[in-house]
Amino acid sequence: MKKESEHLLLTPDQMGTADRLTIQKGVPEFELMQNAGQVVADYILTYFAPCAVGVLCGPGNNGGDGFVVARLLRDAGWSVKLTFQGAREKLGDAARKHLDLWGTDDSPVNDVLADSELLVEALFGAGLDRDVTGTFAELIKRMNRTHKPIVAIDMPSGIDGATGEVRGRAVRALASVSFFRLKPGHFLLPGKSYCGNVHLGQIGILESVLPRIDAQLWYNGPDLWTMPPYEAGGHKYSRGHCLVLSGDELSGGAARLCAMAALRSGAGLVSLFGERGALVAQAPHVTEIMLKPEPLDELLKDERNNCLVLGPGAGANAKLRDRVLAAIAAKRACVLDADALTAFAGDPKALFDHIKRYGGDKIVLTPHDGEFARLFAGLDLAAGKVEKVRQAAHMSGAQVLLKGADTVIGAPDGRVVINANAPAILATAGSGDVLAGIIGGMLARGMSGFDAACAGAFIHGAAAQQFGKEGLIASDIMAELPDMLMAMSE
Q1: Is 154 a known ligand-binding residue?
Q2: Which intervals of the chain form a coiled coil (predicted)?
Q3: Is 405 marked as binding a ligand?
């Protein structure tokens, strides 16, 4: 996986460290605050027509950024009113100086809310470390009830920048303007739905401070991974053979979707395997997919069969457990989904020990929330989504992809990626089976487990976006895959 720093996400604490290290290297805090306000003002000047603006500032540096925005918009000829909710003596030096430069008395909240066409929210930003209550909670409630466009500085106040959780009450912004690096809360639900359009600007924080912070969280995108190229002298087996376990005669659709997605994702060959009766039921529905009634131990003797997808529609039984353990022991790349996870809910240690013993760098677990809770019952499930996936990957020794509108992917070494391009129309039967197949296809082609999971999640979401209308069904995602793969390979 490529560690492209542009995709790096910083928690509020890490962002505070970046600020502090930059100031220690000689960049004045006053200058950073001035630059932050300039980025926000430039955004407003670019995307809004001149209008009456109300700027609502809190008692910290987020409020200091707001003082700068108010002054710059006023200097640009806009009508601006500012209200400061806090004590001047509690402001830091840089924020106090910028309040002095504003110069005029602040306006009553009632006037700011009533007389403004656009609100700039600078109460707390991402640095919030407690629930919003009392006067500030009431102010946020009143701001939201105006139904006026709100531009939030850094992060809508009330959203935890590290977890995306709502802390008491939160501002619903039309846009959020952040600095240096985005925060996890810009991508994690429910925070993502409060942020509106997210814009990132640079304010003079030094790139050289990033190695000191050692962040291990990114938002997903093609810059993080590389699609395996098609070699001019290659052949079907050089692109891998993916085996997908079929469900029984009445439960074969999930595996069929999965197999077709793996083939569309570029695996050289894809076969459904399983009980003969199940494959006979599959036969009228597949052409390019092969059918393998051979026992799994025979299939695993052929080294060219380099990847397996186990679980979709398979039935959570002892036989499935044995197949999963056999595939891992054979050191094959595996996607374990659905029933393959549920089958180990009573004894996850048996699965995790096997993964760690035989090497889990190409083992991908793809649970939804319920499967995750059953498989990782020993974790603190109240922790933020990023941290619980990071812990799960470490506990299992596998790559863990926790599915959702804000899918989170973790590796055992602590790396985590948030995938946030999935449209709501993806919530349809079979969508997860297609995702498992895409990841299987990437593994068959030789990608690492973590890269395959990240690429699969992104391509899956991008294909649904490309379809772009209501009525999406799982097979529609597959129809979009060739165009998506071509775009990712350019």
Answers
A1: yes
A2: none
A3: yes
- Cis bond leading into 293, ω under 30°? no
- 13 labelled binding-site residue: no
The reply, when asked if residue 125 is annotated as ligand binding, is yes
Consult the annotation and say whether 61 binds a ligand: yes
Among the listed residues 40, 113, 31, 114, the one whose alpha carbon sits nearest the alpha carbon of residue 76? 40
Is 126 flagged in the annotation as binding? yes
63 among annotated binding-site residues: yes
Residue 3 has pLDDT above 70, yes or no: no
Which residues are bridge partners to 185 per DSSP?
A: none
Residue type, 322: D
Whether residue 323 is annotated as binding a ligand: the answer is: no
| E strands, 158-240, in order | 175-179, 197-201, 217-219
Does 2 have pLDDT greater than 60? no
The pLDDT-based confidence of 235 (bands split at 50, 70, 90) is confident
128 annotated as ligand-binding:
yes
Question: Domains of the chain by range and CATH?
Answer: 8-214 (3.40.50.10260), 222-489 (3.40.1190.20)
- Euclidean distance between the first and final Cα of the chain, in Å? 18
What's the pTM? Answer: 0.95
Amino acid code (one letter) for 234: G
pLDDT score at 286: 96
Q: Which residue has the tokens 């790396």?
A: 415
pLDDT beyond 90 at 340: yes
**64 appears as a binding residue in the annotation:** yes
Residue 197 half-sphere exposure, CB side, CA atoms within 13 Å? Answer: 10
Task: Give every CB contact of residue 69 below 8 A, 6+ residues apart in sequence.
Answer: 37, 40, 41, 44, 55, 120, 122, 153
Has 468 been labeled as part of a binding site? Answer: no
What are residue 273's DSSP bridge partners?
245, 292
Q: Which of 222, 194, 187 is nearest to 386 (CA)?
A: 187
- How does residue 4 score in pLDDT terms, banded at 50, 70 and 90? low
Of residues 59, 86, 54, the one with CA closest to residue 70: 54
Report yes or no: 270 and 290 within 8 Å, Cβ to Cβ: yes
Burial (0-12, 13-18, 19+ Cβ within 10 Å), 66: buried
